[in-house]
């Protein structure tokens, strides 16, 4: 820890598990208390012994966020604070506020135009083509003209079952309608038509993508986490084999258990994408291995560190360290590749093993269990908090029984 880090103000915006994990990593990297700006943070945050909570209204406007951050940092010297968040919408807001926040704050996000390019799943497919990596075959459905009574979605020439999701996450976050899901698995034309009606009536006027469904259960998924320095060089990269994903409608696709593993071929593809996009800051990729061909399929890049970034720290590479060295100290660290194998799991091992159909993989899990859960933090010594965290882990039995009672070859 440098003298500068001993004076740093770490700030995180949001109130979910991913925010706690970021706060824990900042605390471990700096030794400082962490300020979380949130409306209704989870108990693991509100009962933390090293997190200070400052209220931020739900759906706070850009100016409110700017004023709150500048108020926290009033009178501080340059490069003495850092702000993090973990939603696409907040990443975009913070990137747009860069000129208002720097030089006091480090803002480890790409520029807005880069976020717009990589976050739009339609544009992402074109970037993948240019980088020589495969992305899912897809059709983009534009709702910008959906107020016209004659509007109709285009014909979809991809065989069912399909996957449908918002092309731009921030636009989808802004609408609400009954049965809303993060990702839609669609088995028929009637289901797809029903989705278009729901989106149109909810006032959604951005773009949706319909993609081919790549077969394989959750264990075919891979996660890549990277930090790209201010000079454009990748300073940290690591990855994990997903074991199990959340299947609750609003959380589907979020891994809840992973094993860190080096995938150099995937890293090379990710770096070509980052270079092509002119990327800076944290990035998280979702990739699936097509069981029919063994070929990796890049689904998306999240312009932020990702909800499960703590798997990097558990494997010995806290992502905050290279970011702080780059943006706070102005002394970029040498490139680090994460190769240590650890189990990262938010769920009980007994539950996890129910979903593992490969005996060798199950043996690896047992050898690494119980693994690391970012919420189980020895620095947070509240007994009440610890009990709530354990209750949350056990609650996964109920959630999986309801939403994903047994593993399937299609992951839904």
Automatic annotation (TrEMBL):
Q: Which residues form the ATP-grasp domain?
A: 125-329
PROSITE patterns according to UniProt: ATP_GRASP
Q: Which InterPro entries match?
A: ATP-grasp
Q: Which UniProt keywords apply?
A: ATP-binding, Ligase, Nucleotide-binding
Q: Which GO terms describe its molecular function?
A: ATP binding; ligase activity; metal ion binding
Which SUPFAM superfamilies does the record cross-reference, listed alphabetically? Answer: Glutathione synthetase ATP-binding domain-like
* Protein known as: Carboxylate--amine ligase
């Amino acid at each position: 820890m440098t003298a500068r880090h001993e004076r740093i103000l770490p700030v995180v915006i949001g109130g979910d598990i991913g925010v706690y994990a970021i706060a824990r990593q900042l605390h471990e990297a700096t030794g400082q208390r962490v300020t979380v700006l949130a409306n209704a943070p989870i108990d693991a945050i509100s009962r933390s012994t090293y997190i200070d909570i400052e209220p931020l209204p739900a759906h706070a406007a850009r100016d409110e966020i700017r004023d709150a951050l500048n108020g926290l940092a009033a009178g501080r010297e340059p490069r003495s604070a850092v702000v993090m968040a973990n939603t696409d919408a907040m990443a975009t807001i913070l990137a747009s506020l860069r000129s208002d926040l720097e030089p006091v704050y480090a803002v480890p996000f790409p520029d807005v135009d880069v976020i717009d390019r990589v976050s739009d799943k339609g544009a992402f497919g074109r970037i993948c083509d240019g980088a020589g990596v495969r992305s899912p075959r897809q059709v983009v459905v534009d709702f910008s003209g959906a107020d016209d009574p004659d509007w109709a979605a285009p014909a979809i020439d991809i065989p069912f079952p399909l996957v449908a999701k918002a092309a731009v996450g921030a636009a989808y976050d802004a609408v609400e309608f009954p049965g809303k899901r993060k990702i839609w698995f669609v088995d028929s034309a009637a289901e797809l038509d029903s989705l278009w009606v729901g989106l149109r009536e909810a006032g959604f006027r951005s773009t949706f993508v319909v993609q081919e469904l790549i077969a394989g259960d959750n264990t075919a998924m891979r996660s890549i986490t990277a930090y790209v320095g201010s000079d454009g060089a990748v300073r940290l990269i690591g990855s994990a084999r997903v074991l199990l994903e959340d299947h609750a409608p609003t959380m589907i696709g979020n891994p809840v258990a992973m094993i860190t593993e080096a995938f150099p071929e995937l890293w090379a593809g990710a770096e070509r994408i980052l270079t092509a996009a002119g990327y800076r800051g944290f990035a998280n990729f979702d990739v699936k291995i097509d069981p029919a061909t063994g070929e990796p399929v890049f689904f998306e890049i999240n312009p932020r560190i990702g909800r499960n970034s703590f798997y990097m720290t558990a494997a010995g590479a806290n992502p905050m360290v290279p970011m702080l060295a780059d943006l706070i100290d102005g002394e970029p660290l040498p490139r680090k590749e994460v190769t240590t194998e650890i189990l990262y799991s938010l769920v009980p091992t007994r539950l996890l093993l129910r979903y593992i159909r490969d005996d060798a993989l199950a043996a690896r899990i047992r050898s690494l269990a119980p693994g690391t859960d970012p919420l189980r933090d020895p620095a947070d010594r509240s007994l009440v908090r610890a009990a709530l965290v354990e209750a949350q882990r056990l609650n996964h039995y109920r959630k999986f029984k309801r939403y994903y009672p047994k593993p399937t070859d299609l992951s839904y």
